[in-house]
Design a protein that fits this description.
about 250 residues; about 45% helix; Rossmann fold; about 15% strand
């Protein structure tokens, strides 16, 4: 929670991947605190539905279709958000995914490149598009979705995914340190398994194995991650930047 009452009131967050899962729940959490919410997703109808739900909380919200694998699409998203809402104070790059599970020797070029397109390039494009605007407006906070997978390597099913999330964590570290003098904070989030549509690419056996590595013996809930995003963006968290935050039910580094 913020230190200052109504800290988020009339401020704006842009969320990619807002149509479902962590992005959707984060949209509701920020609206609860009085923030305006731009809901961006490749699923335009899903983003529009979330935006309507958010408006019911008494804040401004809108939906934008975006293909985060396209620089042009991400640039359009950013420009439309600024045109419609004015200053964007917070950016949450929530969109991403594993695309498919695969043993390492069966990862082909298509799977590798698609995974990097949505997890790495999408985050890269969004930060490059938004940073000049944030600098011009005196600062901002960027939260990027990484994963515990980058510490574990994803052996057997998802080296491609783990590698891409490692790139997100490294990129976040570099951006945080490069732009700290411009009042920009940038933090990667590294959840363990979270109960979202992301899990649909996993078999029941893979889900059970993932859950078994979590001492709490359950997946995280999307809103639990969303509350951490809120804290990071608040004035209660002003000395934190660059280093990853792990949300893993005690899963540690196994």
């Amino acid at each position: 929670m913020p230190k200052t009452p109504e800290f988020f009131k009339n401020k704006t967050i842009l969320i990619t991947g807002a149509a479902s899962g962590i992005g959707k729940e984060t949209a509701h959490i920020f609206a609860r605190e009085g923030a305006n919410v731009v809901c961006a997703d490749i699923n335009e109808s899903g983003a529009a539905a979330v935006a309507e739900e958010v408006k019911a909380k008494g804040v401004r919200s809108g939906a934008i279709a975006v293909d985060i694998a396209s620089r042009d699409s991400v640039n359009d998203m950013t420009q439309k958000s600024i045109a419609d809402f004015g200053p964007i104070h917070f950016l949450f790059n929530s969109a991403g995914g594993a695309v498919a599970r695969s043993p390492f020797l069966e990862i082909d070029d298509d799977l590798w490149h698609k995974t990097y397109d949505i997890n790495v390039h999408g985050t890269f494009y969004a930060m490059q598009a938004m940073l000049p605007h944030m600098i011009e407006n005196g600062g901002g906070v960027i939260v990027n979705m990484a994963s515990m997978a980058h510490l574990r390597g994803g052996p057997g099913t998802s080296v491609h995914y783990a590698s891409s999330k490692g790139a997100v964590a490294t990129m976040s570290l570099g951006v945080a340190r490069e732009f700290v003098d411009q009042n920009i904070r940038c933090i990667p989030l590294c959840p363990a398994g979270v109960d979202t549509p992301f899990q649909d690419v996993s078999s029941p056996e893979q889900r059970a194995k993932s859950m078994g590595a979590i001492p709490m013996k359950r997946f995280g809930r999307p809103e639990e991650v969303g509350e951490v995003v809120l804290f990071i963006c608040s004035d209660a968290c002003e000395f934190m930047t660059a280093d990853p935050i792990y949300i893993n039910g005690g899963g540690g580094f196994r």
